Amino acid sequence: MEAIDEYVRFCRIVGPWTDWFQGPGGNLSVKDLFKNHMFVKQSGVRIADTTHDYGWTLCELNALRECLATNKEDFISAVSVCPTHSAKPSIEAVLHTFPSKYILHAHPAPLMTQLCTPDSSFYIPTFKTITVPYAKPGIPLAKLLQTMYDPSVSIYFLRNHGVVIMADNLDEILIRMNSIRIHLFPAGVYTQIPTAAILSYRMKPTQQPLLLRPTFLSSPLRTFLPYTPDIAVFFTEPVFCLKENALTYPSTVPQVISIDNHLYVVGETLTQCAILEELLRAYLQISSSFTIQLVDPEVASLRGWDKEKERLQNSK
Ligand SMILES: [Zn+2]
User: Measured in angstroms, how far is the CA atom of residue 247 from the centroid of ligand 1?
Assistant: First the structure.
C-alpha cells in the first residue's frame, strides 16, 4: 500500500471519533521512510475530511527537522516536495518528526480532567508511558518532547493538552488507543475502537473508507419508521445491528449501525454524518406508542420526488 493510501485510511478511520478529535484539533502522520517524506495534516482542517485530494500536505522530513532545530516556525520550506499539495502544515507537524512511521496526536476529551489535574498518573499495564509538562504547541512542545523521548516508549501524555502515540503501523496505534480507553477513560460511552475500525475499513474496501461516526447515544434497538418526510427521505436502510463479539459485515452500506446498543452513523463526508446524527436524535424523541407513520404511497411519493432527490444529493 502506498503511504498516501495508508494516510487517508488512518484519517478516515480515527478522524470521526469525536471522543478523540474535535473540530480541527489533533493531527496524524504517515512517513514514507524510503523517500524521506511525511504525509501530515494541513493546518486548520478536520482529520475526517481527509481524502486523496484534500486535507494533507507532504513534507520533506529532513527539512522539517531542520526547521525544528533552527526554531523556524514557518514550515513552508519543508513542503515543496509536492507542488500540488504544498498547503501549510499543521503547527504541530514538528511533533511528527520522531522516527515511528505512524504518529497520532489527539485531544481525548474523556482524559482531559486527568491531564489538567496536577500529579495525576497515567498507568497502563501493557505499555510504558511518559508524561510531558505543558509547553506551547509547535516548536516549544516538540523540543521538550525531544528531551524526554525514549525509543522504547510509544505513548506520551501531554499535560493540559492531549496525547501522542507512536507506532510502526495502524493496528499498533489502535491497540494503544484501546488500552488508553480501557485503562484510563472514566466510565461512559465511547468509541468501541476495534469494532468501529474494522467495520469502517471493511464496509468499503477501497482506498477511501466510509466514515463511521459514534453518536454517543445509547439507545434500545428500533426499526426506522417513516414518521416524517425527513425521516422517510434520509433513512432508507434498516438499522444494522451487530454484536461486538460476532463480527459480520453488512452486504449493503448501512446508514446507522447499532453495536451492543451504541449507535454509529455512516457517511461519505462529515457533513453527511452530522445530518444523519441530527435526524437520528430527532427521530429517537418520537414515542413508538400511539403514533402513526406515513403510509407507503406517501413515502414512495417523497422518495421518488426529484426535489427530494436533489436535496439528498446536495446534503453530502
Ligand atoms: Zn494538540
Answer: 34
130, 150 contact by CB (below 8 A):
yes
Residue 215 has pLDDT above 60, yes or no: yes
pTM for this one?
0.91
53 CA → ligand 1 middle, Å: 24
Domain ranges of the chain: 3-184, 195-314
Angle between helices 139-148 and 61-69 (to 10 degrees): 90
Task: Give all strands of the β-sheet with 240-242 in edge-to-edge order.
Answer: 211-218, 262-267, 256-259, 240-242
**pLDDT number for residue 45:** 94
Q: For domain 3-184, give the CATH number.
A: 3.40.225.10
In the reported structure, the alpha carbon of residue 99 is separated from the centroid of ligand 1 by a whole-number distance in angstroms of 19
Q: How many CB atoms lie within 10 A of CB 208?
A: 15
**91 C-alpha to center of ligand 1: Å?**
9
